[in-house]
Amino acid sequence: MQFTFDAAGNRTTLYGRIDLSQYVDPIARKGLAIKEVLFQLRDPASGRLPNTGALNPVAFYQSAVPTSGQIGALKLYATTRAYENAAEVGIASPDVLCIYERMSMIGVQGTGDSALVNEDFWYGPKDLHPEGFTVVSDLLIGIAADTWSEQDGDTVEVDIMLIAEPIKVTTERVNEILSQAQDL
To answer: 52-78 b/e with 16+ CB inside 10 Å = b?
Structure first.
């Protein structure tokens, strides 16, 4: 999956779709129990980290005089429901398998010294659905960002790995999953 930040480092909610049709079939009651979802963010064309293509974990350009209160955020999540805005997606949101958030903040003390804090928050299927999240349809990967100016205008790539096992789904469970999808 690829996405692009705007000139201010923002990215409105965007979805990529993972086609699982060769693994799931609601009519035949074939599903997947998704046990783990892994994301890797890469910025191979930026030139800032050309040997690794790694996404810089700092949201802002490094400057001699940092500005206190700068904050940037990036959110990635897997779901079977398309939410209009990533701000609506939390760990208790229906049909959400996992959420990854990366925050980058700068604080400047009265002495002029600055502190940079980067934090990662990960809520995976093992946390939210320990038995595995039952899927009988495609999977959506959502992404959004606020002021991630280090990659302004860059096209960033997200590699996604799913660890799942095929399962037989009861007719009642298939009907429940499909009816929930129509309650949007």
So the answer is: eeebbeebbeeeeebeeebebbbbbbb
The Cα 176–Cα 166 span in angstroms is 18
Q: What is the dihedral of CA 3, 133, 85, 10, to 10 degrees?
A: -30
Q: What residue has token string 């790694």?
A: 54
- The reply to whether the predicted model has a pTM over 0.85 is yes
Helix (H, G, I), strand (E, B) or coil at 182: helix
For the stretch 93-128, pLDDT in tens is 999 999 999 998 887 766 666 777 889 999 998 888
List the domain boundaries for the chain. 2-182
For the chain, the farthest-separated pair of C-alpha atoms sits apart, in whole angstroms, at: 67
Q: What's the distance, CA 181 to chain centroid?
A: 20
pLDDT at 183: 44
**How far is Cα 21 from Cα 3, in angstroms, rounded to an integer?**
24
The confidence score (pLDDT) of residue 170 equals: 82
Is residue 87 classed as helix, strand or coil in its secondary structure? helix
pLDDT at 39 over 70: yes
- The length of the chain is 184
143: nearest Cα among 15, 10, 1 = 15
Which of 74, 64, 80, 83 lies closest to 101, judged by CA? 74
